[in-house]
Amino acid sequence: STQSTWGQTIRSMSGFGFGLRALFLNRLAHNGAASNIFLRQRFVSQFSSLSSTPKLQTHVKAAAPATELVKKLLIPVDAKPSTTIELHDPSRPLTPSSNIFAVVEVNGAQYKVVKDDLVMAEKISDLDIGQSRKFDSVLLVGTQDYTAVGHPYVENASVTVSVEEQTRTEKVIVFKKKRRKGYKRQQGHRQSVTMLRVTDIQHSVPNKI
């Protein structure tokens, strides 16, 4: 019964790839149940015969149908670069945009922010303390029951920040050593950063989608 059970297992794996069957046989070689020489020879012979048999499609499950949310996120290739996808649960009313958040791109990095947040970004050398700047590179805007996804950026959305401080981070020790070579190097590094205060997030949530 053990031989017939393992034989059926090998046959049932014919619908999967060569690598999976090889991995399964490798595991069997180290298994106590497959320590018998006769079983090993039978596994190898059945495995070699599977290469000529057609693959069984009954073991491949059909993909689940995509939901409406996923369909909206599947943007066609020929879509305009400034496409904005607006998502909303119809069962919930749209609320005002007072508690709005955004994902904004600053100097190549992305930050999820809300109003009055303090963000430590890479140094912006052309801004002084107290100056403001409006970033239009907003990737996503949302509230509790509304989301606008940009492709790549959300239209008519911006994040306004003000510079609070131009500083450097705490020192990080960089130590290198090669054993038995008499080589040691130690140095410190402090990254220059700009502290930004989010003063406003501008995006008008529509009354109806």
The level of helicity is 10-25%
Strand order of the largest sheet: 1-7-6-2-3
Radius of gyration: 30 Å
Number of helices: 4
Give the number of DSSP strands. 11
Instruction: Give the overall pLDDT as a whole number.
Output: 74
Largest sheet properties? 5 strands, antiparallel
Fraction in beta strands: 35-45%
Architecture overview:
The protein is α+β, with helices and mostly antiparallel strands and 209 residues long. It has 4 helices and 11 strands. It has helices at 2-12, 18-29, 37-49, 68-73, and strands at 83-88, 101-106, 109-114, 118-122, 132-135, 138-142, 146-151, 158-168, 172-178, 183-189, 192-202. A 5-stranded antiparallel sheet has the order 1-7-6-2-3. The protein has a 4-stranded antiparallel sheet with strand order 4-11-8-5, with no helix packed on it. The chain has a two-stranded antiparallel ribbon with strand order 9-10. Strand 9 (172-178) and strand 10 form a beta hairpin. Helix 1 (2-12) runs parallel beside helix 3 and helix 2 (18-29) packs antiparallel against helix 3 (37-49).
Structural descriptors:
single chain, 209 residues, alpha+beta, five-stranded antiparallel sheet, four-stranded antiparallel sheet
Structure in a nutshell:
This protein is an alpha+beta fold.
How does the SSE layout of this entry go?
Layout: H1 2-12, H2 18-29, H3 37-49, H4 68-73, E1 83-88, E2 101-106, E3 109-114, E4 118-122, E5 132-135, E6 138-142, E7 146-151, E8 158-168, E9 172-178, E10 183-189, E11 192-202
Antiparallel strand pairs: 1-7, 2-3, 2-6, 4-11, 5-8, 6-7, 8-11, 9-10
Helix pairs in contact: 1-3, 2-3
